[in-house]
Design goal:
Number of strands: 9
Radius of gyration: 40 Å
Number of helices: 9
Strand content: 15-25%
Distance between the termini: 37 Å
Order of helices and strands: HEHHEEHHEHHEEEEEHH
Shape: elongated
Structural class: alpha+beta
Helix content: 55-70%
Largest sheet: 7 strands, antiparallel
């Protein structure tokens, strides 16, 4: 806060104690004189080091890993196979078979289960990105609000100390007046009561400042340190446009509305999956080419290919079958094979129930989307009212500062003329500092209210922190 340096009175030299009181008043704001500066921008830049910020990052990264895993599951898969069998009958010669193979598979149909997982993971990823943006915005707004809360607490403590010093000086003067018979004992007791009240107020201000500082550094994820919060609040303009246009913007950009739409998209996708599972029967096509003998697959290299129409999975493979037996095997020839299998569910009550459940989920999601839109509209209206009221209130506090400034000028003139006391002048100085403190608090309230309005309409790019580009 700015120091106020007033000219000393010319008519009467203050007592040593009064001089100390005046020195305290002139030195308001000196609590952070030798401390390192902590601008608001620096504090906001430190937010990524906080535990809450990092926890939100980890939750987002988890959804990102899940989406990557879903894409990987739908990609090319290559597997190696091998087998060995040995038989030794009680009569006859022993024999053994072995095989080595390689199989490649890939999801080739858009309705595959793997693609279903990709769409689900993508929706979860988008929701996680919205949650990350909301968390970061909330942390930034809370930090800005707490930053100014600490500044107000510093001003409150400075004023409490000044008022206590003034009350102590009043007690000293009252004691002298009571000894001279110029003041009743009741007047002296009232002065002493004022000093006791001022001491209690100072103790409360000290505790309030310490709690506010601890809260600020907890939000930053740092240990408490001696810093000077040197960024005063600044009145911000309200977002451009009418209230109705801001509401329309909120319905397009707010996270809660977008997540409700994502939920509806998921419910609609679930219905498509349920209907597909009901009416698309498990069907597979298999092709093969290789040596065949009397006992089945013969020795040599064989090839296979298959396509599952329900899962959308296609695979190709090559296998080498070796036979080692003391008995000659039957002669085998290369053979082409084709297979088709279909399983048609004629009566499937569980699948029918899944369809009905999905339809109900769509209706519920539509209701949730409608409710989210109404809640968003109400929230924007409330935030707009708060920001507008806070903006209008600043004018009254500016007038209060002007009045206190004029009162101080009058007190200075009267002091030079000898028509008031040094305490009257000092009280006018404290009153001006109180008015300045109230104006700063009102400006901080307006600044945070505008930021909350910006968050309510989804204008996150205008908030005082880098939200990581998650829009």
């Amino acid at each position: 806060m700015n120091n106020i340096n007033m000219p000393k009175a010319k008519s009467r030299r203050p007592t040593p104690k009064a001089a100390r009181v005046l020195g305290l008043l002139l030195g308001l704001g000196s609590l952070g004189f030798a401390q390192a500066d902590l601008p608001l921008t620096t504090a906001l830049q430190s937010l990524p080091q906080s535990a809450d910020w990092q926890s939100a990052d980890l939750r987002f990264q988890n959804s990102q890993r899940t989406l990557e895993a879903a894409y990987a599951a739908a990609g090319l898969q290559i597997r190696g196979t091998g087998s060995y069998n040995y038989s030794a009958p009680e009569s006859g010669n022993s024999s053994s078979t072995n095989s080595l193979g390689l199989t490649a598979s890939l999801n080739v149909l858009p309705w595959s289960g793997a693609n279903d997982q990709i769409r689900s993971a993508a929706r979860n990823f988008e929701s996680a990105a919205l949650d990350l943006r909301d968390t970061r915005a909330t942390l930034a707004l809370n930090l800005a609000n707490q930053y100014f809360t600490v500044r107000n607490a510093v001003a409150d403590l400075e004023l409490a100390q000044a008022n206590q010093a003034l009350a102590a000086e009043r007690v000293r003067i009252s004691m002298a007046q009571q000894s001279a018979g110029q003041l009743t004992k009741e007047g002296l007791l009232q002065a002493r009561q004022g000093l006791e009240n001022a001491q209690v107020t100072r103790l409360q201000a000290e505790g309030g400042l310490e709690n506010a500082r601890l809260t600020l550094f907890n939000q930053l994820g740092q240990g408490p340190s001696a810093v000077n919060l040197n960024t005063p609040p600044q009145e911000l303009p309200l977002p451009q446009g009418s209230l109705e246009s801001l509401i329309a913007q909120a319905l397009q950009r707010r996270s809660d509305v977008r997540k409700a739409q994502i939920q509806l998209d998921g419910a609609q996708d679930s219905l498509i999956i349920a209907q597909r599972n009901r009416w698309l029967p498990p069907t597979s096509v298999n092709l093969g080419y290789g040596p065949r003998g009397q006992g089945g697959t013969g020795a040599g290299l064989s090839y296979s290919a298959s396509l599952d129409l329900q899962s959308g999975n296609a695979s190709v493979g090559a296998t080498y079958n070796g036979i080692n037996s003391s008995q000659p095997s039957a002669t085998s020839t290369n053979t082409f094979t084709f297979g088709l299998s279909v399983s048609l569910p004629l009566v499937a009550p569980s699948s029918d129930a899944s369809i009905r459940t999905a339809q109900t989920q769509i209706e519920a999601a539509q209701k949730s989307l409608h409710s989210a839109g109404k809640s968003a509209e109400l929230d924007v209206r409330q935030r707009y009212l708060e920001a507008s009221t806070a903006t209008a209130r600043i004018k009254a506090f500016r007038i209060a500062v002007d009045n206190a400034t004029q009162a101080l000028s009058t007190a200075q003139a009267r002091r030079q003329a000898g028509t008031n006391t040094a305490l009257d002048l000092q009280q006018a100085q404290v009153n001006l500092r109180q008015a300045q403190r109230d104006l700063e608090a009102a400006t901080a309230t307006q600044m945070v209210a505008v930021y909350r309005l910006l968050g309510a309409i989804g204008a996150f790019e205008q908030l005082p922190v880098n939200l990581g580009g998650q829009q």
